[in-house]
Amino acid sequence: MKVKRLWAPWRSKYVTAIHKKTKGCVFCNIFASKADKRNYIFKRTEYCFAVLNIFPYNNGHALIIPNRHVSDLKKLKKEEKYDLFNLLEEVKDLLEEVLKPQGYNIGINIGRIAGAGFPGHLHVHVVPRWKGDVNFMPVTTDSKVISQSLETLREKLVNADKRRN
């Protein structure tokens, strides 16, 4: 039997819970707090920052987020756009060094209808992938197995970045 759809209903619980708990934009709040370790921010640049997703699709699922609250790529200034894509490349290189994935899903969901959980603040998803990383757990138990803690991974990414600079 061929699977035509794989439902992930637990994602809506995550987005709803974050919206209820947070006043204002969750990404703006994370950026302003400067509590990088607590918020799993592992790299900041002049116009953007990189953070680990706290409800990842896969180990190493990171978000690249502009510092400025904008909802669409066309609203970014030239230097912000350059910084966003430069940071994306740096994050991919760091994930490559630390996790050695065999591939990546990289995407931007613009608008709620396109799947953006936070449609007001543009962000880029970087999801490392390995052969066989999708298994039966999400389908049969409504659970996703993530093989590494966010704290451990953040430290490894920060240390790898320090070695590179």
Tell me the fraction of residues in β-strands, as a range: 15-25%
Q: How many beta-strand segments? A: 5
Enumerate how many helices there are, as a single number.
6
Mean pLDDT: 84
Provide a brief overview of the structure.
This protein has about 160 residues and is an alpha+beta fold. The chain is about 40% helix and about 15% strand. About 20% of the residues are buried.
SSE layout and pairings?
Layout lengths: L9 H12 L4 H8 L2 H4 L1 E4 L3 E5 L9 E5 L11 H22 L3 E5 L16 E6 L7 H5 L8 H15 L1
Antiparallel strand pairs: 1-2, 2-3, 3-5, 4-5
Helix pairs in contact: 4-6
Describe the structure.
The protein has six helices and five strands; from the N terminus they run αααβββαββαα. The protein is of the alpha+beta class and 165 residues long. The protein has a single domain, classed as HIT family, subunit A (2-Layer Sandwich), CATH 3.30.428.10. The protein has a five-stranded antiparallel β-sheet with strand order 1-2-3-5-4. Helix 4 packs across helix 6. The protein is globular, with a radius of gyration of 16 Å. The N and C termini lie far apart (50 Å). The relative contact order is 0.18.
